[in-house]
Amino acid sequence: MEAEVGALTRGRADIGAVVTFTGLCRDEDGRLAALELEHYPGMAEAEIARVAAEAEARWPLLGLTIVHRSGRLEPGEQIVLVATASCHREAAFEAAAFLMDYLKTRAPFWKKEHLADGSCGEWVAAKGEDDAAAERWAAPASAGSGRTSSAEVATFSRRREKMAAERPDEGQTGPS
Predict the structure, then answer these.
(1) What confidence tens digit (pLDDT) does each residue in 9-64 have?
(2) What are the E-state strand segments in 58-139?
(3) Best CA proximity match to 52, nearest among 171, 128, 147
(4) What is the pLDDT of residue 152?
(5) Is residue 173 part of a domain?
(6) SS3 of 146, please?
(7) Using CA atoms, how far apart are residues 172 and 3, in angstroms rounded to an integer?
(8) What's the start-to-end Cα distance of the chain, in Å?
């Protein structure tokens, strides 16, 4: 996580706030051995890029990073990282909440439980409270900046430069 935040803020004196959220695989009732996260490569990255552009259209962000892991994850392992950077904390907090509400309910990832007794549990459905949280952002935003970013296994990072001309995004590492 520190490396991602460092890459987001390196050389930037104009950033006044960085908000990070790290989601972990949790075992609520002691039965979970692992969670299998599946996604469609290409589709997940495109959707993450689309919602990132929407966040940039809604808030004055100076940068953002989203890392969403897939595959088999055990309890305690990191699933997702969202980091937002802005001049002021309010925009960074709101954008991070918006991005997490979207990732939790609408991003094309599917989760299946693998139980400690060796059996496969159910596919995990979005919870009603997660859907309700996502509904607060239902008002459409204007189109995003139109930039695209390279993605690697559902990793998205965008850094906005204070320049008249846009520069290509810096290289991005894969999920951690």
Answers:
(1) 999 999 999 999 999 999 989 999 999 999 988 999 999 999 999 999 999 999 99
(2) 61-68, 71-73, 78-86, 109-115, 120-124
(3) 147
(4) 32
(5) no
(6) coil
(7) 11
(8) 8
What one-character DSSP code corresponds to residue 15? -
Residue 165: inside a domain: no
Query: Which residue(s) pair with 115 in the sheet?
Result: 32
Give pTM, 2 decimals.
0.76
26: tokens are 């949790």
CA torsion through residues 143, 46, 128, 93, sign: negative
The CATH number given to whatever domain includes residue 24 is 3.90.1170.40
Q: Is 114 inside any structural domain?
A: yes
CA R_g for the chain:
17
Res 127: pLDDT:
79
Instruction: Count CB-CB contacts under 10 A for residue 102.
Output: 21
Number of domains in the chain: 1
